[in-house]
Queue: 4 jobs
Job 1
Amino acid sequence: MSIELLAPTTEVAEPPEILAEPRTLAHRELRRDDYWRALPGYAAVDADTFHTHTFQTRHTVTNVRQLSETLGGLAPESFYADVVAGLKRAPMALRISPYLLSLIDWANPYEDPIRTQFMPVASQQVKDHPELRLDSLHEQKDSPVPGLTHRYPDKALFLPLDSCPVYCRFCTRSYAIGGDTETVEKLKFTGRSQRWEDAFAYIESRPELEDIVISGGDTYNLSAGHIQEIGERLLRMPNIRRIRYATKGLAVLPQKILTDHPWVDALTRVVELGRTLHKEVVIHTHFNHPNEVTGVTQDALNRLTERGITVRSQTVLQSGVNDNASTMQLLVRRLSYVNIHPYYVYFHDMVPGVEDLRTTLAAGLKIEKFVRGHTAGFNTPSFVVDTMGGGGKRDAHSYEYYNRESGIAVYTSPGVKPGTFFLYFDPLKALSEAYQLRWQHAGARNEMIQQALAEARRAGR
Ligand SMILES: *Cc1c(COP(=O)(O)O)cnc(C)c1O
Ligand code: SF4
């Protein structure tokens, strides 16, 4: 190597080429056209009406009859039949807001990332991995009182309700959320006020608890009064330092932030009370694709920003939705642009009925490498696997062992459940035919898993 190459350069470097490319600014292009008018059911609806939470909730589509009434001839008959058959085998019922429905590209619904997340089609469903379980995360096993999951030392998950403004196909809580379907009879969170009291009493009785995630269901479906009641109750507990309201609402019905004033005011009062008590109150939301961030999202986030409300987002990595580097980069940039901090990207949980949505660990790890370094570190999400069996979230890169041929990854979680191994399985469709075959035999299956565990034990020594 020549000496000159090592000498410090005095030349001023050109700015990196990529800064000048228009595609690097694509995250700023937020839709503000009247996209809903392309749907026959909404053709006559003006913007002022469409962008209200009352229109959105009143016209939410919950069955295929309403879907075909809204879309008319935009989708072929065969598509509706495909959805009907898909719903028969799905763990989640159909529920989609007019806003989301209008953001779907109806010229190509089979490939559309929003359709893929909210409407099952039988023609794309695949058989479950043999190791899948309902409540794969052991949320019910880690519940000291119904509707409260306490797995980590200082934080707990409070589930005050079991409904949501939409139903996502990939929902981890398909054991509880939404109405019964043909394949899943749901656990019902009944006897609400006593159950809430039990949860509050438990939280107050555990001095180590500082951080409460209020989830569900979805806190968008709590009334203004309940938002305030839960928030104040928790903030007044001396042990509680941080609360987060979890809602998918900003991604599926951002109009509520602009038109449901009592709800936003209630939330603001809780945030202000938190500030007075020197405690943190934030929103955690959930976006999966850049198409879900529009002009109305930006308007809603501007409103929250004016009120000093911090919003973070988590994403679920899904095949055909966001499992490529450029989509994930665009999502992260677009969220950051409207003041949402990308927090997590979850590998798809191992839940039944949505195997077509899962990706391999390898695919997600590769995407992570493209996302990290793309923008500010505090807007760079961690890619995590929420382990089956209650080990909690693990940095996806931190596996003890990963065999890309059998698709088995082994994690440990010494801070949560020391001495236990946790498994993640790649979807079978991504494996070679020989390995797909091995997974069909219980004996071979067990052998592969035991071997992976032995390798992980060896690696850990
Ligand atoms: C995800 C989760 C939390 C919150 O975890 P963070 O990593 O702090 O976001 C708390 N409790 C349970 C049971 C969870 O699954
Ligand atoms: S909004 Fe959240 S809890 Fe509700 S169905 Fe979707 S993923 Fe599940």
Job 2
Amino acid sequence: MSKVNWDFYDKNGFTRIINVNGTMTGLGASMAVQPAIQATAEIMPHFVNMHELQEKASSVISELTGAEAGFIAASASAGISMSIAACLTGDSVGKIEQLPKTIGQPIKVAVQMGHLCHYGASIEQAISLTGAQVTIVGQSTQVLDHQLEYAVSNEAIAAVYVVSHHVVEYGQIPLKRFCEICHAADVPVIVDAASEYDLEIFLADGADIVIYSGHKFLSGPTSGILAGKKDLIKAAYMQNLGIARGMKIGKESIYGAMAALKAWKKRDHAAIRQQEQSALKMWLKTCENINGITASMHADVTHNPLDRLKIQIDKTNLGASAGAIALALNSNNPKIIVRDHEVELGYIQLDPCNLAQGHAEIVSTALTSIFEQAILGNLPEPDFNKSRNSSINSYLNWISN
Ligand SMILES: *Cc1c(COP(=O)(O)O)cnc(C)c1O
């Protein structure tokens, strides 16, 4: 039997879960690292001057990113809203208290069409709840320089650039060029790099503020890390006097995120990669010599130092579709959540970055038995339209049945 200890799940009546999807809000983001866990507990019984705490956070952020300043927000999404609000108000407390009212002032925010993503909620809404308004630049798979030049020279107060697997991968303006064009029009660039590993490159490419999630690869408590130009960071922080009050972050998450950042710097990244590789190789072996299954390792699309296993499924040869395999894994005990956002293309992916001890073996065993069921023709095919909408239905069905 596996070495996995499920006591926490069983005593609370929680569904047992193995996450091979990646960091996911719906599953509680990531498995926190010990230093972050200890830090959150350590600060809980104490009072602390929150400005002082955020000033220490600023130093930690500067050290890791090279930014002039930084602070920690409730989430990356909150960080996007606070950054846009900063571009609307600067350090005017009067303006800060007025938002989302912006009577008579420029409010446009330029975003490439292919970057208007959904990360559980829409980025356009995170921008527009400040009172700002998105100007769409270009078309989904092609944006040319003149289109951004035109957008930022027409009453734009900011431009947003998203680095993510959620956005269109080609045909977009590269970040460096994007920043040159925006800066020529005196428009600051806010980069959403919520799930990116590289803490320096986006600032080095010219971003005025870059935003990371504290609870994704950093494995800290739920939080957003903002790093950038001092004036803009200060104006973003000042939004706590206004619209960001409802996005309040607690002392434990600030202190925990600081600990996660420090731990990130010291982490043995090579050893972690090695561990991930051994899980991937085990799964690759599980998929070998099965008619209808082609498995291969794939590098992350945004160049994070991470590989995933892509399992391509030929429904005719296997006897079940990729969607049916995903559904069967999801119905397993423990529930195995795979990366299935491109399932209509005939594949699922396994992400090894959130595995606890013993998880990889359970995934392997479950795959073997599910493939056997598929070959026997025993796997039900999911209703694709139902599964496409499952994230919404999970809300609609909450506490109603
Ligand atoms: C996850 C994600 C967000 C939201 O991050 P939170 O910290 O959970 O608010 C925003 N943008 C992108 C690209 C993301 O991947």
Job 3
Amino acid sequence: RPGAAPGLPRVAPLLSSVPATPRSVPARVRGSLPRWLRGSLLRVGPGKFEFGEDRYNHWFDGMALLHQFRIENGSVTYRSKFLQSDTYKANSAQNRIVISEFGTLALPDPCKNIFERFMSKFEMTAMTDNTNVNYVRYKGDYYMSTETNLMNKVDIETLERTEKVDWSKFIAVNGATAHPHYDPDGTAYNMGNSYGSQGSCYNVIRVPPEKVDLGETIHGAQVICSIAPTERMKPSYYHSFGMTKNYIIFIEQPLKINLWKIITSKIRGKAFSDGISWEPQYNTRFHVVDKRTGQLLPGMYYSKPFISFHQINAFEDQGCIVIDLCCQDDGRVIDAYQLQNLRKAGEELDQVYRSVARSFPRRFVLPLDVTVNTPEGETLSPLSYSSASAVKQADGKIWCTHENLHGEDLEEQGGIEFPQINYGQFSGKKYRVFYGCGFRHLVGDSLIKVDVVNKTLKVWREDGFYPSEPVFVPVPGTNAEDGGVILSVVVTANQKDSNFLLVLDARTFEELGRAEVPVPMPYGFHGTFVPM
Ligand SMILES: *[C@@H]1O[C@H](CO)[C@@H](O)[C@H](O)[C@H]1NC(C)=O
Ligand SMILES: *[C@@H]1O[C@H](CO)[C@@H](O)[C@H](O)[C@H]1NC(C)=O
Ligand SMILES: [Fe+2]
């Protein structure tokens, strides 16, 4: 079985609580870091998994720990702080889990009497502001984001929270993804669901780039398009979406949010995660929205069921949209990432790993100009460089079949996730290269550079070390797509070894240097580089 590494070493130490390191500590640099590399790598992920006797159930539930690696003159300093969210403060003050998270239902206060405890089952669940997924940028400011209606604005120098922002106070949405897209002028696009008496909608959101006249935070945000789900009470879960110069591409995948289950979860004593289910009797559907007019295009694009957490890139070519995604054929992945599973060992841990479908990069081609006169039964893609097809059926739907953007060698790496590109120069454009983490384990265990044109790989790996999402930083004054470095935070469960910030030459994928930090760090989610 390709990609299955028997006898996986335990990763439990990488998914355990650590203390924060609020005062900068110097890193020990080996090799040499380029002099032009000046700025901060900011990362976030869960760093605290219990309060008092209460424990979180799911990896996604842990309290947001903010990491900052400052790089200047070839040296590196590190610090970290727990995000001072309302959730973190309330849990700390009461030394128990007060606010429910994705996989953990907060229990009623044991100090309340029986009647009060009974009644609290009927109160609305307070939404968490434990924004532990990503740093996002609106109007030049940084916010910590998860997928709820709440974001926390942070000072990226001090890592202190400065403001809590609620999407639903500005526009009719109940949340937004932690993976917005940005136009070159700073206009941000995102997507979020709204839940109302009519059921739910998927909404495309635009946030203007300027504060002048439009106000601070996300004033001026607009819903530019609302898309009705196939089933109003069972909208799809999505973690990101695609964007080209002119279009937003939304993927409605058969990972469903059962709103009845969510509404009744507290009474039934279940967490939100209980309301999400993989329903492969539905196909995956693509929706395309014109960014300028907010119009939903009439094309009904379908493919066999898959799920995608992270999109790689998308662009327009010869009347088509080309969209590249990391895809899994089975959506039963969320349960595997329960902490009790991740903390297993030996054969039991191997079983968890085998239960998760590997993630592979795939290309879909969506022809834009589809009318009643479009012929049926033949591929509508004119693209000579892609074997992806799109065929109109008798019912008018366009059936899309993907092209694999990889060879067998990627199967040996356990597939790829956490894709990143040279976003500044190549987002929404025809491109050649992306980077990601190989997954021969339940967390990333290698860094991989994929050439999507000739489908070749370059791999960095060291046994016992787990690299995070690779962040590309361009060298000033070059147009080469891979002219720059890759930054990744590499963590280990070995007591005698240090975690480190790794710097690779993005072109050759050779190590330039590493900055060892003698501080425990858990495996995290996402990050960004802010130049100085
Ligand atoms: C880096 O070098 C510049 C110029 O030599 C100097 O002004 C600056 O203080 C140095 N910064 C650090 C953190 O050493
Ligand atoms: C694939 O393309 C890259 C350029 O991105 C080149 O360096 C490499 O040699 C090519 N490999 C093959 C096998 O064609
Ligand atoms: Fe993500």
Job 4
Amino acid sequence: MQQESQLATPYFMIDESKLIDNLKKCQQLKQLSGAKLVLALKCFSTWGVFDTIAPYLDGTTSSGPYEVMLGHETFGKETHAYSVGYSEQDVKDVADKSDKIIFNSQSQWQRYRHLVPEHCQVGLRLNPERSAAGQDLADPARAFCRLGVTESALDKTLALGLDGVMFHMNCENKSVSSFAALLDHISAQFSDVLSQVSWVSLGGGVFFTWPGYPIEELAEVLKQFSLAHQVQVYLEPGEAVITQTTDLVVTVVDIVDNGKKTAIVDSATEAHRLDTLIYNEPASIAEASQDGPFPYVIGSCSCLAGDQFCETQFDQPLQVGQRLTVQDSGGYTMVKLNWFNGLKMPSIYCRRVNGSIECLNSFEYQDFKHTLSRKSISSI
Ligand SMILES: *Cc1c(COP(=O)(O)O)cnc(C)c1O
């Protein structure tokens, strides 16, 4: 059996048993609430582990045409297609692979409704102009937001032709009461539309797999919403499914000291863990110890001056060659991997429940080369 200590870094390690822990919470929520859960592929689309995930969920939802194809091909069950902006070709490409097509605007819906086949239901994203989303960049309630139709812009006669509606207004929301308040707001604001549709997707960002989250209370809130409007409720979890299941393992390749001791590792947030940078959210290192006497910056090996994983402390001085485990690196990471600086791409592994380690993907120089060109102009 392959020993983890012999794997070349950098690599992601998906822990199947931790994934199943989250999936059991998904299952519990479904059973108690009657809601259906579709995985948001934009957060996590490492389809090599879909055999583990699919039995617990009802399908997938997407943010772009290739995710629709991937969900249809590798996950099965229900395939929801959503896009902020479809081209005509996009709609043609996804139509026969989708159970539901959700448009972001009334103009997209009007332009493409004739292309939606009989078997496929039509939904529209609505924007309740309220959210529990934290950072402005990811907040659909930010001023002039293009995501979904607001109440004042909604043409209620058009809405008669809809099968369902979608809302997405949470991000890592750990509070049932704030989620319930958002639903009360939606119920009042959009009561006419809600009485006409047969399903409502409440989007992602509800962090019900967080330790201690009161799943029963959430289930009750969802059930009441579903009863009040006589609709099938959906949630579209991404991060909640994948949280705390996956580590990024890196090696210290150098230690420099320009006023602060900085361990340089064989990975970069800009290439392999982009949200650390975009949202300015420092990573956690499993080997660190809160009161350790040896502080370090965990610096990346990209050329970007501010690219670092975190600042943290250790009980012992770090050594070149030592491995560090960047915790909780599953959601919004593998989907955003890029080849910036020509760094080595992390391999992707899964530790199965029985302890065996499966390699889902590994990359080499040719992969880097081929993302940029397949041939040179002189050979065409
Ligand atoms: C991002 C997104 C999701 C998933 O959000 P998580 O925070 O990962 O649960 C679901 N639905 C829509 C429309 C999204 O944009």
